[in-house]
Write a structure and sequence with these properties.
two-stranded parallel ribbon; single chain; Outer membrane efflux proteins (OEP); 2 domains; alpha+beta
C-alpha cells in the first residue's frame, strides 16, 4: 500500500503546472478521529502506513538500517577462532652426493613430500587436529667392493632402500584445564559481544523510532503552518474589510480620519505577516518532502486526521511495558550483565594455566604405495605422546589491575541501571501527565475559539454603527485569529503527546504492526 501510494503521489506531479511546489500552498482540513492518520494526495494513510513510508523513503532510516545489520559484526568476527583450518604443503627435492658418500647416501636422490591437515578449536577450549603426511624417495646407489681377510671381497650396493613410500597418519587433542577451563572465558566473551550487539541494535532501532515520530511531527508542522497561512489571509481579509467600514464611517462622520490611518498600517502589517507565513509554510513543506525523499514539486494536500479523544491509560501497565521494551533500560541491564561477565573473566585469568595434550600417529614404510598405506592404516607401527604443561605467573599486576577495574565498572553499571529504573518511571509518568494536560489545554483552546469568534462577529456588527473604536475591533480580530491557531496547535500537541508515550514505552512499531526487521538488510 505504501509503495503504491508513493507511486501515486509521484504520478500526480504530471497533473500539476510548472508553478507547483513548496511555494504552492496545500489546502488542509482537520478531521477528528480516534486514530490519527496522514492524508497525501487525497489518500488517507494510517500512522502504521506512514511509518512504513518513512522506513522505505527516508535516507536516515535507510542508512540506520545498515547500522542495525552490522551490530553483530564483532560477535561474528570472534567466531572466526572456531573455524576449521585446512593446511596443505608440498615440496620436491633432488640431491647429488660425492662419490665418497655413494654407498651410504647414494649418488643421487629424488624425493617429494606432501602433507594435509585440518585443525579446529571448539568453544569448550578443546583443540583437535588430524592429518596425513607422505614422503617418497628414490635413491641411486654406487656399488662398493670391500675385501675380506681370506682374500675374497664383498660388493655393497647401498645401505638404504632404493625406493620407498613413507606415510604418517597423525591426530592430536589439546585441552586447557584451569585458566579458561573448557572455554570458560571464551563463552563469556561470546556472550559479552552478543550483548554489545544487542545494545547497539536496540539503540539504533530506538533512534529510528524517534526519526519516525519526528517525520510525523514534521507533517503536522506543515498542517500548522498551512493553518497559520490561512489565518494570516483571514486576518488580512478581515483587516481590509474593517478598514473599508472605517472609511465609510469617516465619510459620514462616525469615525476619525486617524482611525483610517491606523487601519492602513494594520493592512500593511497583515500583508507582511502573510508573506512571512507563506515562507514558513514553504520551509516546513520542503523539509517534509526532503525527509520523505519526495520531489519538490509534489503537492501534498487533503485532510489531517487527528485524534480528539482522551484515551484511557493504565500507568502500571504502561510502566510494565516500558520496563519490558524500553531500549535504555534494557541496555543498562545488559551493560550490568556484561560488567559481571568481564569481572568473572579477569578473575579466571588469575588461575594457573594447565594444558593436557595427547598426540598419536602411525608410521609405515614400503616400496609400494598400497602396502605403505595398509600398514599405516592398521597402526602396525604406532606412536603416542601425552604431556601436561603448567604455567603460573607469580605476580601478575596486569591481571590484578584488570580485576580491580572490572569491579569498579560493575559498580558503575549498577548505578546506571538504578538510574534508568528511575528515568523510565519518571519519563512514562511525565508522558501520561502530558496527555491529560494537553487534552485539557486543547478543550480550553476550543472554548476560547468559540467565544472569540462569537465576540468578533458581534463586535463587527456594531462597528458599522460607530459604537466601537478601531483599536477595540483590531484586538477582537487578533484574538479570534490567534485562538484559531492556538486551538490547532493544542490539538496537534495533544496528538504528539500520544506518540511520545508510545515512544517512551518503545511500543511504536509494535502498536502499529510494523515489522522493523523487514527493513533491515540481511547479511551473509
Amino acid at each position: 500500500m505504501v509503495i503504491s501510494l508513493v507511486i501515486m503521489v509521484h504520478a500526480s506531479v504530471t497533473a500539476q503546472n510548472n508553478n507547483s511546489g513548496p511555494g504552492t500552498r496545500a489546502s488542509f482540513n482537520v478531521e477528528l478521529s480516534n486514530n490519527a492518520a496522514f492524508s497525501l494526495a487525497g489518500k488517507k494513510v494510517t500512522l502504521g502506513d506512514a511509518i512504513r513510508l518513512v522506513l522505505e523513503q527516508n535516507r536516515d532510516t535507510l542508512s540506520g538500517a545498515y547500522d542495525v545489520a552490522m551490530t553483530d559484526s564483532m560477535s561474528r568476527k570472534f567466531q572466526a577462532k572456531y573455524s576449521p583450518y585446512l593446511n596443505l604443503e608440498s615440496s620436491v627435492r633432488q640431491d647429488k652426493y660425492p662419490e665418497a658418500m655413494g654407498t651410504l647416501y647414494g649418488t643421487e636422490k629424488d624425493s617429494w613430500n606432501i602433507s594435509a591437515s585440518i585443525a579446529k578449536m571448539f568453544s569448550s577450549g578443546t583443540t583437535v587436529a588430524a592429518g596425513v603426511k607422505h614422503d617418497y624417495a628414490k635413491t641411486t646407489y654406487q656399488a662398493t667392493t670391500i675385501p675380506t681377510n681370506n682374500g675374497d671381497s664383498i660388493t655393497l650396493s647401498g645401505f638404504g632402500a632404493p625406493e620407498y613410500h613413507q606415510p604418517v597418519m597423525f591426530a592430536s587433542i589439546k585441552q586447557e584445564l584451569l585458566k579458561n577451563a573448557f572455554g570458560y572465558n571464551d563463552r563469556r566473551q561470546v556472550e559479552i559481544l552478543r550483548n554489545q550487539g544487542t545494545i547497539q541494535r536496540e539503540t539504533i532501532i530506538n533512534y529510528l523510532a524517534g526519526l519516525v515520530v519526528q517525520v510525523v511531527v514534521d507533517y503536522w508542522t506543515v498542517v500548522v503552518n498551512s493553518s497559520a497561512l490561512e489565518n494570516a489571509e483571514l486576518q488580512l481579509r478581515e483587516t481590509m474589510r474593517v478598514r473599508n467600514i472605517i472609511a465609510q464611517n469617516v465619510r459620514i462622520g462616525l469615525a476619525e480620519r486617524f482611525d483610517l490611518n491606523y487601519y492602513n498600517s494594520l493592512v500593511a502589517s497583515s500583508e507582511a505577516r502573510k508573506v512571512q507565513a507563506q515562507q514558513q509554510y514553504r520551509d516546513s513543506l520542503r523539509n517534509l518532502l526532503q525527509t520523505l525523499n519526495l520531489d519538490d514539486n509534489i503537492r501534498i494536500d487533503g485532510t489531517a486526521v487527528l485524534s480528539g479523544s482522551l484515551p484511557e491509560v493504565n500507568r502500571e501497565l504502561a510502566l510494565k511495558i516500558a520496563y519490558a521494551k524500553r531500549a535504555d533500560y534494557l541496555n543498562a541491564r545488559l551493560a550490568m550483565k556484561n560488567a559481571q561477565l568481564s569481572l568473572d573473566m579477569y578473575e579466571n585469568q588469575g588461575m594457573p594455566s594447565m594444558t593436557a595434550e595427547l598426540n598419536v600417529s602411525s608410521l609405515a614404510q614400503q616400496q609400494t604405495y598400497g602396502e605403505a598405506y595398509s600398514d599405516a592404516a592398521s597402526a602396525t607401527y604406532p606412536s603416542w605422546e601425552a604431556k601436561v604443561t603448567f604455567t603460573y605467573p607469580l605476580d601478575d599486576q596486569e591481571q590484578k589491575t584488570n580485576v580491580r577495574d572490572a569491579g569498579f565498572r560493575l559498580k558503575q553499571a549498577k548505578l546506571q541501571f538504578d538510574k534508568y529504573q528511575r528515568v523510565v518511571r519518571d519519563d512514562v509518568t511525565t508522558k501520561i501527565e502530558h496527555i491529560d494536560t494537553y487534552y485539557r489545554i486543547y478543550n480550553k483552546a476550543k472554548e476560547i475559539t468559540q467565544q472569540s469568534e462569537t465576540y468578533y462577529r458581534r463586535l463587527l456588527g456594531n462597528l458599522r454603527r460607530g459604537r466601537f473604536t478601531a483599536a477595540v475591533v483590531k484586538n477582537g480580530l487578533d484574538a479570534m485569529v490567534e485562538s484559531r491557531q492556538r486551538e490547532l496547535e493544542a490539538l496537534i500537541q495533544f496528538n504528539v503527546s500520544l506518540l511520545k508515550l508510545d515512544l517512551a514505552k518503545n511500543e511504536l512499531f509494535d502498536k502499529y504492526g510494523v515489522d522493523v526487521n523487514k527493513y533491515i538488510p540481511a547479511g551473509k
